Amino acid sequence: MSARSKARKRALDILFQADVRGEDLPAMLAVEAKRAANEPAREASWLYAREIVDGVIDNRDAIDEQITTFAKDWSLARMPAVDRAVLRIGVWEILYNDEVPTAVAIDEAVELAKEFSTDDSGSFVHGVLARIARSS
């Protein structure tokens, strides 16, 4: 598994935990940063995970607006928390990270959804992200 794939999993964990626990995302990120300082072997994945979470924090309203606009008949509150987190990662990579090809961002998000969410989440995430990619 690539360092970026591992980073996406770390970012998913941070975003999901903050969402489910109702905790402040920057505070959760700070806790994870302290933990990462004690794990030098995982530094490569931590740096990109932090970039993702910082990007989601900085662009949260615009990211959530994109998700809400293109998730046909689904409000953010109605989505499983894992799907919300995966979509936020995918949207950030598509719209705000020029280093990641759109197809890679979508594929990685779909794989996360398949691994960590419901049976239908992979196709749901793919559909939303594909519509966002086409519109941008």
How does this model look, in words?
This protein is mainly alpha-helical and 136 residues long. The protein has one domain: NusB-like (N-utilizing Substance Protein B Homolog, Chain A, Orthogonal Bundle). It is built from 7 helices and no strands. It has helices spanning 3-21, 25-37, 43-58, 60-70, 81-96, 102-116, 121-135. Helix 1 (3-21) crosses helix 3. It is globular. The mean pLDDT is 94.
Short key terms for the protein model shown above:
77% helix
Identify the CATH architecture. Answer: Orthogonal Bundle
Helix/sheet category: mainly alpha
CA(first)-CA(last) distance: 29 Å
Radius of gyration: 14 Å
What's the order of the H and E elements? HHHHHHH
